[in-house]
């Protein structure tokens, strides 16, 4: 394995944000020191915050200025798994698997460190839907946990998780989930417009939201699929549908 990555494969935060379709889950912590600037980039729902804060950010901040270099960090950062030889696509894939991307702007070099926070099997078992085969976990009331489930099961740079707030007086956060190159843009635009036009404040669950979005309340045909199973949700997303969490 080479000790120095190809500098052409070291994009900055702005470029990564563009590749990931302006994902609101992608965060960057910038540290300026000794005339250089470090970008610490990660997906907030996929990393273990304690590990990033203690063993990446705090570790770097406490180093003498002379030691904040690519070669020193590569050998001494206290993380078990460190990648130093990679291409741009592997950077994106690693970020979507819970790695943290550390980019030194002046040296134009970077490394990836594993700070993943994997979903545990003990989340919850689906109660209203059942499967004979496959994972038994279900979505929870936590939007952050649900995004984590989606990201860990669908590693795709074109997966978009757009943020939106609905309600007039009581704002409720939603995520619109879709794959950019599979989803009809007109349908997506229409859905977003409908969501933005919702002014009622008592959206207590997905069934109430579905009623607000229905085109025909008396239709015999289902206009929405409601599920607590991530597998079923992901199957629909991979078939070009748009999901709402």
Automatic annotation (TrEMBL):
Database matches in InterPro entries: Spore_Ger (IPR004995), UPF0353/GerABKA_families (IPR050768)
Bilayer disposition of the protein: Multi-pass membrane protein
Keyword check for Amino-acid biosynthesis: no
Q: Does the keyword Membrane apply?
A: yes
Keyword annotations from UniProtKB, A to Z:
Membrane
The biological processes this protein is annotated with in GO are: spore germination
Q: Which Pfam families is this protein grouped with?
A: GerA
Question: Which compartments does it reside in?
Answer: Membrane
Which Gene Ontology CC terms are recorded? membrane
Q: What family does this chain come from, according to its entry?
A: Belongs to the GerABKA family.
**UniProt protein name:** Spore germination protein
Task: Write down the species.
Answer: Heyndrickxia oleronia
**Organism phylogeny:** Bacteria, Bacillati, Bacillota, Bacilli, Bacillales
């Amino acid at each position: 394995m080479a000790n120095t990555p190809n500098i052409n494969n070291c994009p900055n935060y702005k470029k990564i944000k563009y590749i990931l379709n302006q994902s609101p889950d992608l965060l960057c912590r910038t540290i300026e020191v000794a005339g250089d600037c470090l970008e610490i980039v990660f997906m907030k729902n996929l990393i273990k915050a304690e590990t990033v804060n203690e063993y990446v950010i705090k570790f770097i901040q406490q180093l003498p200025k002379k030691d904040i270099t690519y070669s020193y960090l590569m050998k001494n950062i206290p993380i078990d798994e460190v990648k130093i030889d990679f291409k741009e696509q592997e950077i994106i894939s690693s970020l979507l698997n819970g790695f943290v991307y550390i980019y030194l702007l002046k040296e134009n070099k970077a490394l990836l460190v594993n700070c993943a926070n994997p979903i545990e099997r003990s989340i919850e078992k689906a109660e209203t839907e059942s499967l004979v085969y496959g994972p038994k976990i279900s979505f929870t009331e936590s939007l952050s946990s649900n995004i984590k489930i989606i990201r860990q099961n669908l590693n795709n740079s074109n997966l978009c998780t757009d943020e939106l707030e609905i309600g007039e007086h009581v704002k409720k956060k939603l995520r619109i989930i879709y794959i950019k190159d599979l989803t009809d843009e007109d349908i997506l635009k229409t859905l977003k417009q409908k969501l933005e036009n919702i002014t009622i404040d008592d959206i207590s669950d997905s069934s109430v939201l579905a009623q607000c979005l229905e085109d025909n309340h008396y239709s015999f045909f289902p206009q929405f699929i409601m599920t607590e199973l991530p597998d079923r949700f992901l199957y629909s997303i991979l078939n070009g549908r748009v999901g709402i969490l």
